[in-house]
Amino acid sequence: MLGALSIAETRNVFPTDDESLTALVIGDGFAAERLETDQETSPIVEISTAVSLSAALEQLADVDCLVCRQPPEDATLEETIDRVRRRRAELPVLVVADESWLTMARDETADHQWTDVVADGPTVDQRLRYRLPRLVERKRLSTLSQRSLAGIELAGDAIATVDPDGAIEFPNHSFAVEFGADRDGLIGQPWQDLFEPATAERLASTAIPTVEDGWRWTGTCTGRRTDGTEFSARVSIGGLEDGSLVFVVETPADDETTTG
Question: Would you say 195 and 221 are in contact if contact means Cβ atoms under 8 Å apart?
Answer without folding.
Answer: yes
